[in-house]
Amino acid sequence: MSILANKNTRLLVQGITGSEGLFHTMQMIAYGTNVVAGVTPGKGGEWVNGNVPVFDSVKRAVDATGANTSIIFVPARFAADSILEAADAGIPFVVCITEGIPVMDMMRVRNYIDQKNVRLLGPNCPGLLTPGEAKVGIIPGDIAIPGNVGIVSRSGTLTYEVLYALKQVGMGSSTTVGIGGDPINGTNHIDILQMFEDDPQTDKVVMIGEIGGTDEEKAAEFIATKMTKPVIGFIAGQTAPPGKRMGHAGAIIEGGSGTAAEKIAALEAAGVKVARHPEEIPSLL
Amino acid sequence: MKLHEYQSKTIFSKFGIPIPKGKVAATASEARQIAKELGGAVVVKSQVLVGGRGKAGGIKVAKTPDEVEKIAGQILAMEIKGLPVRKVLIDEAADIKKEIYLGITNDRAEKKPVIMASAAGGVEIEEIAKTNPELIIKVHINPLIGIKDYQSRDIASAIDLPREHWKVFGEILKGLWEVYQSHDATLAEINPLVITGDDRLVALDGKMLIDDNALFRHQDLNDMRDTDEEAPSEIEARKYGLTFIKLDGNIGCMVNGAGLAMASMDILKLFGGDPANFLDIGGGASAEKVAAAMRIILADPNVKAILFNIFGGITRGDEVAKGILTAMEEVKPKVPMVVRLVGTNAVEGRALLASANMITAETLAEAAQKAVAAAKGDF
Predict the structure, then answer these.
(1) Under CATH, what is the fold of the domain B96-222?
(2) To probe the interface with A, which of B108, B124, B177, B364 has the most A CB atoms within 10 Å?
């Protein structure tokens, strides 16, 4: 078992012929992910890797291949449209890697897809990895091994750091999920924590947060009241100055709230052990 | 990106929101001329992108053109919180009967824009939130539908606005929403919205923040950017697509990925160091980008050591190593450099750097400790 992606994932890649889309499609195929189709408007009829058909629209791709998950590598100005296209074509799970989508677009998208019961992961995220089964995203496959630790994170490379540190001591992950660094996203910490709580393969959870918003505070309350599995936390941005956007659009301390100190305090009050730095996480597990 | 008060109010006015008569001036004599045209008492308002202008003495009332010229001259010579005042707005003075707060921003938790209104206008909303949170009315907007009439009536009633103003208030609120959504704002604020002595509603002050990710579709707003509030290094970094934020410490940081960059700064602090900057070189960083990043870090005279923490994924370790070598040729750094390369093509990258006399580290903790020691001169 695992969450969100596994051997049954039939993956569609939106933006499959772009440089990023193509590169990561090849990486995902090499990892063993079942990539069944691609979409690039205007390039329907072409093939990728000799065996992945390209379609002009998501609807056609779904009708022809039965894709049940989509991953989006489309430039920011077109990405909101791509998410809506996937939702309207009936895909229940959409992963958006694209960084830099305007927040107004994301608010409209989120309010629309919520009515259709579509789950969105991201945007501005590294996707997810179920080691040994499927990679839906850009997390390097070779830094992770299968195991019983569920990981949920707002950051990309920081997640790689944790996976790598776990692997050094022989620990592996059930599924690793990057929820992304944007202020308006599709899936938050709590959604993933609930999935890990319900997943029999996951015994322990690592939650990696950062400054900005109140997602981690809400997660702390959820952990205290709803979770039986142990959770280890880490919060990036303890040294971040207020009012500055620290790379991620969502990583900003506004009006004194969203600080690392508040988040760490909330997690510790919920009984979560909080690591001082990422390499300390394996020893706390 | 922040807009100035005069820029925000000009936009408001295009969307039917009443603003005072006024014009912006860059010199004292221009200010005098504007005051003459307006006639009567005016307010001279410094245009800088920080809050607390009034308290700093950057907003003053003047009664005659002579007085305007004198005050404008004084304000134009000021610095407010480190920012030079380059322009003043000359607005006709208003006879204020009541001050209201009205703003729209994004509620991250609800995934919707939210209207905030309060009868306790004229002070900052953060201040009201601290002292009288019950006086702030919040109403969410469905971004697919927009503001409905009943919502503006509900708000008007909740802030005890006299009924004769409800219709105009509704028009102002709709105008503010149109401003907000059509400009990709993350904040559009009127504070105060006043009822004047002759019973008109007027937006005396205006503030807008624009979503940087949406600037590609707003060239007009891009052209309004005031770079005074940014360090020159931050402007230079933007040219190369780097995210750089200057800090006060002495250890330069170059990292790929925003979260890892923050974590790298934090771990320096944990081991007794102090980061000089936040710098995310992004995914797939080219040698040219890395070289630019290194020049920007080394332009800060406080920097006593540099920490490179690169976790290769999309970013390739050998590309980064080439960038470091190119930059070293160019800028000939005098400070010690600690490098940690992991992930895609890290072995090749390390081999390239082996000849370059750099301090290497296997783990992040080791790299941070070495960088802290190097900054103290212990290497």
Answers:
(1) D-amino Acid Aminotransferase; Chain A, domain 1 (3.30.470)
(2) B108
